[in-house]
Design brief:
Rossmann fold; five-stranded mixed barrel
Length: about 375
Protein backbone atom coordinates (compact mmCIF):
# COMPACT_ATOMS: atom_id res chain seq x y z
CA UNK A 1 0.00 0.00 0.00
CA UNK A 2 2.84 2.36 0.87
CA UNK A 3 4.54 1.65 -2.41
CA UNK A 4 1.43 2.79 -4.31
CA UNK A 5 1.03 6.08 -2.36
CA UNK A 6 2.17 9.39 -3.86
CA UNK A 7 3.36 12.47 -2.01
CA UNK A 8 1.27 15.57 -1.41
CA UNK A 9 3.59 17.48 -3.72
CA UNK A 10 3.07 14.95 -6.48
CA UNK A 11 -0.73 15.16 -6.19
CA UNK A 12 -0.66 18.95 -6.02
CA UNK A 13 1.59 19.13 -9.08
CA UNK A 14 -0.77 16.76 -10.93
CA UNK A 15 -3.83 18.88 -10.11
CA UNK A 16 -2.00 22.05 -11.10
CA UNK A 17 -1.01 20.44 -14.38
CA UNK A 18 -4.64 19.65 -15.15
CA UNK A 19 -5.72 23.26 -14.65
CA UNK A 20 -2.74 24.64 -16.58
CA UNK A 21 -3.25 22.27 -19.51
CA UNK A 22 -7.02 22.68 -19.84
CA UNK A 23 -7.41 25.38 -22.50
CA UNK A 24 -11.17 25.58 -21.98
CA UNK A 25 -10.54 27.01 -18.49
CA UNK A 26 -8.32 29.85 -19.77
CA UNK A 27 -9.88 33.33 -20.10
CA UNK A 28 -13.37 32.24 -19.17
CA UNK A 29 -16.10 34.57 -17.86
CA UNK A 30 -17.95 33.85 -14.63
CA UNK A 31 -20.79 35.86 -13.11
CA UNK A 32 -21.69 36.10 -9.44
CA UNK A 33 -22.07 38.44 -6.48
CA UNK A 34 -19.06 40.10 -4.82
CA UNK A 35 -18.64 39.36 -1.12
CA UNK A 36 -15.87 39.81 1.46
CA UNK A 37 -14.08 42.42 -0.63
CA UNK A 38 -10.74 43.76 0.54
CA UNK A 39 -8.16 45.78 -1.36
CA UNK A 40 -4.48 45.58 -0.44
CA UNK A 41 -1.70 47.39 -2.27
CA UNK A 42 -3.82 47.79 -5.37
CA UNK A 43 -4.93 44.15 -5.49
CA UNK A 44 -8.53 43.13 -4.82
CA UNK A 45 -9.39 39.94 -2.96
CA UNK A 46 -13.01 38.81 -2.87
CA UNK A 47 -15.42 35.91 -3.11
CA UNK A 48 -17.64 35.47 -6.12
CA UNK A 49 -20.80 33.59 -5.12
CA UNK A 50 -24.22 32.45 -6.12
CA UNK A 51 -26.88 30.63 -4.13
CA UNK A 52 -24.95 27.34 -3.91
CA UNK A 53 -21.23 27.97 -4.38
CA UNK A 54 -18.26 30.22 -3.65
CA UNK A 55 -15.23 31.04 -5.75
CA UNK A 56 -12.17 32.74 -4.28
CA UNK A 57 -10.91 35.47 -6.59
CA UNK A 58 -7.88 37.72 -6.80
CA UNK A 59 -7.75 40.75 -9.10
CA UNK A 60 -4.21 42.08 -9.51
CA UNK A 61 -3.91 45.76 -10.36
CA UNK A 62 -7.51 46.66 -9.48
CA UNK A 63 -6.73 50.27 -8.43
CA UNK A 64 -8.91 51.96 -10.99
CA UNK A 65 -11.70 49.40 -10.88
CA UNK A 66 -14.64 50.33 -8.62
CA UNK A 67 -15.77 47.21 -6.79
CA UNK A 68 -18.36 46.99 -4.01
CA UNK A 69 -19.76 44.22 -1.92
CA UNK A 70 -23.10 43.12 -3.29
CA UNK A 71 -22.26 43.97 -6.91
CA UNK A 72 -23.21 41.30 -9.42
CA UNK A 73 -20.33 41.15 -11.91
CA UNK A 74 -18.93 39.21 -14.83
CA UNK A 75 -15.30 38.33 -14.02
CA UNK A 76 -13.00 37.20 -16.82
CA UNK A 77 -9.90 35.22 -15.91
CA UNK A 78 -8.31 31.83 -15.35
CA UNK A 79 -8.49 29.41 -12.40
CA UNK A 80 -5.06 28.75 -10.89
CA UNK A 81 -4.16 26.01 -8.48
CA UNK A 82 -1.30 26.93 -6.15
CA UNK A 83 0.38 23.69 -5.17
CA UNK A 84 2.39 25.12 -2.29
CA UNK A 85 -0.68 26.49 -0.53
CA UNK A 86 -3.10 23.88 -1.77
CA UNK A 87 -5.48 26.62 -2.80
CA UNK A 88 -7.53 27.32 -5.92
CA UNK A 89 -7.99 30.95 -6.94
CA UNK A 90 -9.69 32.52 -9.91
CA UNK A 91 -7.21 35.07 -11.27
CA UNK A 92 -9.31 37.92 -12.64
CA UNK A 93 -8.06 40.09 -15.50
CA UNK A 94 -11.27 41.99 -16.30
CA UNK A 95 -14.49 42.90 -14.46
CA UNK A 96 -17.74 44.11 -15.96
CA UNK A 97 -20.97 44.97 -14.10
CA UNK A 98 -23.78 42.45 -14.37
CA UNK A 99 -26.24 43.99 -11.96
CA UNK A 100 -26.80 44.42 -8.19
CA UNK A 101 -26.81 41.39 -5.92
CA UNK A 102 -29.99 40.47 -4.08
CA UNK A 103 -28.56 41.17 -0.61
CA UNK A 104 -27.17 44.53 -1.59
CA UNK A 105 -30.40 45.39 -3.39
CA UNK A 106 -32.35 44.62 -0.22
CA UNK A 107 -29.89 46.77 1.76
CA UNK A 108 -30.45 49.74 -0.58
CA UNK A 109 -34.24 49.31 -0.46
CA UNK A 110 -34.30 49.39 3.37
CA UNK A 111 -31.85 52.30 3.47
CA UNK A 112 -33.94 54.36 1.03
CA UNK A 113 -37.17 53.57 2.86
CA UNK A 114 -35.87 54.53 6.32
CA UNK A 115 -34.16 57.64 4.98
CA UNK A 116 -37.42 58.84 3.43
CA UNK A 117 -39.14 58.40 6.81
CA UNK A 118 -36.56 60.65 8.50
CA UNK A 119 -34.82 57.99 10.62
CA UNK A 120 -31.41 59.25 9.49
CA UNK A 121 -32.12 62.95 10.17
CA UNK A 122 -28.95 64.40 11.79
CA UNK A 123 -31.03 66.99 13.66
CA UNK A 124 -32.64 64.20 15.69
CA UNK A 125 -29.37 62.65 16.85
CA UNK A 126 -28.93 62.60 20.62
CA UNK A 127 -25.73 64.03 22.06
CA UNK A 128 -23.47 61.84 24.17
CA UNK A 129 -23.29 62.68 27.89
CA UNK A 130 -20.24 64.73 28.82
CA UNK A 131 -19.46 62.59 31.84
CA UNK A 132 -20.17 58.93 31.05
CA UNK A 133 -20.04 56.73 34.14
CA UNK A 134 -21.54 53.49 32.79
CA UNK A 135 -21.53 51.96 29.30
CA UNK A 136 -23.80 49.19 28.03
CA UNK A 137 -22.22 47.05 25.29
CA UNK A 138 -24.24 44.77 23.01
CA UNK A 139 -21.77 42.36 21.44
CA UNK A 140 -20.41 38.84 21.50
CA UNK A 141 -18.91 37.75 24.80
CA UNK A 142 -16.18 35.97 22.84
CA UNK A 143 -13.48 37.46 20.69
CA UNK A 144 -11.43 40.63 20.79
CA UNK A 145 -14.21 43.22 20.42
CA UNK A 146 -15.38 43.44 24.03
CA UNK A 147 -11.80 43.17 25.29
CA UNK A 148 -10.72 46.06 23.04
CA UNK A 149 -13.55 48.21 24.42
CA UNK A 150 -12.63 47.32 28.00
CA UNK A 151 -8.91 48.01 27.47
CA UNK A 152 -9.47 51.41 25.82
CA UNK A 153 -12.06 52.43 28.42
CA UNK A 154 -9.90 51.51 31.43
CA UNK A 155 -6.88 53.22 29.90
CA UNK A 156 -8.80 56.45 29.48
CA UNK A 157 -10.77 56.36 32.73
CA UNK A 158 -10.65 53.42 35.11
CA UNK A 159 -13.73 54.66 36.98
CA UNK A 160 -16.08 54.02 34.03
CA UNK A 161 -18.09 50.78 34.35
CA UNK A 162 -18.86 48.46 31.44
CA UNK A 163 -21.87 46.11 31.30
CA UNK A 164 -22.01 43.48 28.52
CA UNK A 165 -25.23 42.10 27.07
CA UNK A 166 -24.03 38.89 25.32
CA UNK A 167 -25.45 38.72 21.83
CA UNK A 168 -24.94 36.87 18.59
CA UNK A 169 -23.57 39.23 15.97
CA UNK A 170 -23.79 36.98 12.91
CA UNK A 171 -26.25 34.57 11.36
CA UNK A 172 -30.01 34.11 11.41
CA UNK A 173 -31.68 35.61 14.48
CA UNK A 174 -28.66 37.70 15.50
CA UNK A 175 -30.64 40.90 14.91
CA UNK A 176 -33.22 39.71 17.47
CA UNK A 177 -30.47 39.29 20.09
CA UNK A 178 -29.14 42.77 19.37
CA UNK A 179 -32.64 44.26 19.62
CA UNK A 180 -33.20 42.61 23.02
CA UNK A 181 -29.86 43.94 24.25
CA UNK A 182 -30.68 47.52 23.24
CA UNK A 183 -34.13 47.32 24.83
CA UNK A 184 -32.66 45.92 28.04
CA UNK A 185 -30.19 48.76 28.43
CA UNK A 186 -32.77 51.37 27.43
CA UNK A 187 -35.54 50.20 29.77
CA UNK A 188 -33.98 48.24 32.64
CA UNK A 189 -30.45 49.56 33.14
CA UNK A 190 -28.86 52.80 34.34
CA UNK A 191 -26.19 52.96 31.63
CA UNK A 192 -25.45 56.38 30.15
CA UNK A 193 -24.80 55.21 26.59
CA UNK A 194 -25.16 52.02 24.53
CA UNK A 195 -22.46 50.66 22.17
CA UNK A 196 -23.44 48.05 19.56
CA UNK A 197 -20.24 46.42 18.32
CA UNK A 198 -18.67 43.63 16.31
CA UNK A 199 -15.46 43.18 14.32
CA UNK A 200 -15.15 43.24 10.56
CA UNK A 201 -16.64 40.67 8.23
CA UNK A 202 -18.14 40.08 4.84
CA UNK A 203 -21.26 41.86 3.66
CA UNK A 204 -23.26 38.75 4.54
CA UNK A 205 -21.73 38.57 8.02
CA UNK A 206 -22.92 42.11 8.73
CA UNK A 207 -26.48 41.58 7.48
CA UNK A 208 -28.03 41.41 11.01
CA UNK A 209 -27.08 45.08 11.38
CA UNK A 210 -29.10 45.91 8.23
CA UNK A 211 -32.34 44.77 9.84
CA UNK A 212 -35.23 47.23 9.46
CA UNK A 213 -36.65 46.21 12.85
CA UNK A 214 -33.27 46.84 14.51
CA UNK A 215 -33.06 50.28 12.87
CA UNK A 216 -36.47 51.27 14.27
CA UNK A 217 -35.54 50.10 17.77
CA UNK A 218 -32.35 52.18 17.65
CA UNK A 219 -34.33 55.20 16.43
CA UNK A 220 -36.82 54.93 19.31
CA UNK A 221 -34.17 54.29 21.97
CA UNK A 222 -34.20 56.99 24.66
CA UNK A 223 -30.48 56.60 25.40
CA UNK A 224 -27.72 57.49 22.94
CA UNK A 225 -26.64 54.57 20.73
CA UNK A 226 -23.17 54.30 19.21
CA UNK A 227 -22.66 51.86 16.32
CA UNK A 228 -19.23 50.24 16.05
CA UNK A 229 -19.79 47.58 13.42
CA UNK A 230 -17.06 46.25 11.16
CA UNK A 231 -14.14 48.33 9.99
CA UNK A 232 -13.90 51.91 8.78
CA UNK A 233 -14.95 51.04 5.21
CA UNK A 234 -17.97 48.97 6.28
CA UNK A 235 -21.37 50.66 6.46
CA UNK A 236 -24.60 49.11 7.70
CA UNK A 237 -28.12 50.46 8.32
CA UNK A 238 -27.46 50.84 12.06
CA UNK A 239 -24.60 53.23 11.23
CA UNK A 240 -27.03 55.68 9.61
CA UNK A 241 -29.73 55.53 12.30
CA UNK A 242 -27.50 55.52 15.40
CA UNK A 243 -26.63 58.73 17.23
CA UNK A 244 -22.92 58.30 16.51
CA UNK A 245 -21.01 56.00 14.18
CA UNK A 246 -17.54 54.81 15.21
CA UNK A 247 -15.25 53.21 12.60
CA UNK A 248 -14.17 50.46 15.02
CA UNK A 249 -15.12 49.18 18.50
CA UNK A 250 -11.92 50.66 19.95
CA UNK A 251 -12.75 54.02 18.40
CA UNK A 252 -16.21 53.84 19.99
CA UNK A 253 -14.65 53.62 23.44
CA UNK A 254 -12.33 56.51 22.56
CA UNK A 255 -15.30 58.67 21.52
CA UNK A 256 -17.52 57.79 24.48
CA UNK A 257 -15.07 57.92 27.40
CA UNK A 258 -13.43 61.17 28.45
CA UNK A 259 -9.94 60.87 29.83
CA UNK A 260 -9.56 61.55 33.55
CA UNK A 261 -7.12 64.37 32.82
CA UNK A 262 -9.74 65.92 30.54
CA UNK A 263 -12.13 65.99 33.50
CA UNK A 264 -9.50 67.64 35.68
CA UNK A 265 -8.89 70.29 33.03
CA UNK A 266 -12.64 70.76 32.64
CA UNK A 267 -13.06 71.19 36.40
CA UNK A 268 -10.25 73.76 36.44
CA UNK A 269 -11.94 75.59 33.60
CA UNK A 270 -15.25 75.58 35.50
CA UNK A 271 -13.46 76.84 38.63
CA UNK A 272 -11.80 79.66 36.70
CA UNK A 273 -15.11 80.63 35.13
CA UNK A 274 -16.83 80.59 38.52
CA UNK A 275 -14.04 82.68 40.08
CA UNK A 276 -14.31 85.22 37.27
CA UNK A 277 -18.09 85.38 37.68
CA UNK A 278 -17.77 85.90 41.45
CA UNK A 279 -15.15 88.65 41.02
CA UNK A 280 -17.23 90.38 38.36
CA UNK A 281 -20.29 90.15 40.59
CA UNK A 282 -18.35 91.59 43.55
CA UNK A 283 -17.02 94.44 41.40
CA UNK A 284 -20.49 95.17 40.14
CA UNK A 285 -21.96 95.22 43.66
CA UNK A 286 -19.07 97.38 44.95
CA UNK A 287 -19.60 99.89 42.14
CA UNK A 288 -23.32 99.89 42.86
CA UNK A 289 -22.73 100.47 46.59
CA UNK A 290 -20.21 103.25 45.85
CA UNK A 291 -22.64 104.88 43.47
CA UNK A 292 -25.48 104.62 46.01
CA UNK A 293 -23.22 106.00 48.77
CA UNK A 294 -22.33 109.01 46.62
CA UNK A 295 -25.99 109.59 45.83
CA UNK A 296 -26.88 109.21 49.52
CA UNK A 297 -24.17 111.69 50.60
CA UNK A 298 -25.43 114.20 48.08
CA UNK A 299 -29.04 113.68 49.20
CA UNK A 300 -28.11 114.09 52.90
CA UNK A 301 -26.10 117.24 52.23
CA UNK A 302 -28.90 118.70 50.12
CA UNK A 303 -31.45 117.92 52.83
CA UNK A 304 -29.20 119.41 55.54
CA UNK A 305 -28.74 122.59 53.51
CA UNK A 306 -32.48 122.80 53.03
CA UNK A 307 -33.10 122.33 56.79
CA UNK A 308 -30.39 124.86 57.71
CA UNK A 309 -31.89 127.44 55.36
CA UNK A 310 -35.39 126.88 56.74
CA UNK A 311 -34.10 127.00 60.31
CA UNK A 312 -32.25 130.25 59.62
CA UNK A 313 -35.44 131.87 58.38
CA UNK A 314 -37.31 130.75 61.48
CA UNK A 315 -34.50 131.97 63.76
CA UNK A 316 -34.61 135.35 62.11
CA UNK A 317 -38.35 135.48 62.64
CA UNK A 318 -37.96 134.52 66.30
CA UNK A 319 -35.22 137.09 66.78
CA UNK A 320 -37.61 139.76 65.71
CA UNK A 321 -40.08 138.61 68.37
CA UNK A 322 -37.48 138.26 71.14
CA UNK A 323 -38.52 140.61 74.04
CA UNK A 324 -34.91 141.32 74.92
CA UNK A 325 -34.25 142.56 71.43
CA UNK A 326 -37.32 144.81 71.71
CA UNK A 327 -36.09 146.20 75.05
CA UNK A 328 -32.70 146.92 73.49
CA UNK A 329 -34.43 149.19 71.02
CA UNK A 330 -35.66 151.44 73.93
CA UNK A 331 -38.94 149.74 74.77
CA UNK A 332 -39.91 148.59 78.31
CA UNK A 333 -42.11 145.81 79.67
CA UNK A 334 -44.50 146.32 82.62
CA UNK A 335 -45.64 143.38 84.78
CA UNK A 336 -47.89 143.03 87.80
CA UNK A 337 -47.61 139.81 89.72
CA UNK A 338 -45.86 138.24 86.72
CA UNK A 339 -48.54 139.27 84.25
CA UNK A 340 -48.03 141.71 81.42
CA UNK A 341 -49.70 145.10 81.72
CA UNK A 342 -50.94 146.25 78.34
CA UNK A 343 -53.52 148.85 79.41
CA UNK A 344 -54.02 151.51 82.10
CA UNK A 345 -57.14 149.61 83.02
CA UNK A 346 -54.97 146.65 84.14
CA UNK A 347 -53.68 148.74 87.12
CA UNK A 348 -55.43 150.44 90.00
CA UNK A 349 -54.23 153.21 92.30
CA UNK A 350 -51.59 151.97 94.74
CA UNK A 351 -51.01 148.76 92.73
CA UNK A 352 -47.39 147.64 92.75
CA UNK A 353 -45.73 146.84 89.41
CA UNK A 354 -42.30 146.18 87.83
CA UNK A 355 -40.81 147.92 84.80
CA UNK A 356 -38.30 145.79 82.81
CA UNK A 357 -35.63 147.58 80.83
CA UNK A 358 -32.77 146.17 78.78
CA UNK A 359 -30.36 146.28 81.73
CA UNK A 360 -32.65 145.66 84.74
CA UNK A 361 -36.04 146.39 86.32
CA UNK A 362 -37.71 149.16 88.38
CA UNK A 363 -40.37 148.62 90.99
CA UNK A 364 -43.10 151.21 91.35
CA UNK A 365 -46.58 151.97 92.71
CA UNK A 366 -49.48 153.64 90.92
CA UNK A 367 -50.13 157.08 92.38
CA UNK A 368 -52.42 158.20 89.63
CA UNK A 369 -53.47 157.20 86.12
CA UNK A 370 -54.77 159.02 83.15
CA UNK A 371 -56.75 157.53 80.29
CA UNK A 372 -56.24 158.58 76.65
Amino acid sequence: MKDKAISVSQLSAYIKGIFDAEELLHNISVYGEISGLSVLRGNAYFTLKDEDSLLQCVYFGADEQVLKNGDLIVATGTPRYYAKGGKLNFNVVKVEPYGIGDLFKKFLEIKTKLDSEGLFNPLLKKKLPVDVKKIGVVSSEKGAVIQDIINVTKRRNIAVKIVLYPSRVQGDGADKDIIEGIKYFDEKSDVDVIIVARGGGSFEDLMPFNSEELARVVYKCEKPVVSAVGHETDFTIIDFVSDLRAPTPSAAAELVVSQRKDKVLRMKEYFNRLSTLILNCCDEKYNLISSNKTNLDYSVKSKMNEIEYSLGIKIQALEKLNPIKILQRGFAKIEKDGKNINSVFDLSIEDNFEIYLKDGKIKGQVKSKEEL
